[in-house]
Structure of MITD1 protein:
Amino acid sequence: AGAETVKRAVELDVASRFQESLVCYQEGIDLLLQVVKATKDEAKKHRYRQKISEPTLFSDGKYHKQIRIEENATGFGYEKLFHEYLTEIVSEVWVEDPYIRHVHQASRYSLYNFLRFCEMLIKGPCKVKTIHLLTSYDEGGGRSQQISGLEEIQQSLRNYGVTLNIEFSSSIHDREIRFNNGWMIKIGRGLDYFKKPQGRFSIGYCDFDLRPCHETTVDIFHTKHTKKM
């Protein structure tokens, strides 16, 4: 299966479908690495390692794509943004965002956004088992509500076999999301790039694809150095 996936990646590469090709390379290489670890035959191990070293797209372990989300643009729900990077091998996710906080009057919807992000992970093709969240405490009077909200999400995820590890930092500024298949997504505004809905019964309140966005930039990287593996 790994060899076939790598073969498909080469075909996509030749067709200049580079982003799809990169996803296939990563999945195929991870499958082959699993076989290498389980194989005791040294000749077979050598062949598999040769196959793994073939893709040139990973030679320097670097990839970068940038998406510009314009002011009031729609069609940028979490599924749209993250789905193609959430391959079946993804089991662990890291979220660093200083503003995952409680929802209060005239506040941003960061806790709900994080909940929506977690729902996407559960519905996706990946088999996520652990989510690590690094955020900061609510600086106002909503700290206890922030903690209770995160604990409620934590308990709900536990019902789906997913562990949520929560850490707080007073010095965190960067916003990034990492998957253990090597993909890293940096969003200028973090998960909170959606505008406040016009009302509880307005279009876009439930479906984030229909929700207008704030202007922001999304940078997507691939940082896994396969040669070191």
User: Anything to note?
Assistant: The two ends are 19 Å apart (CA to CA).
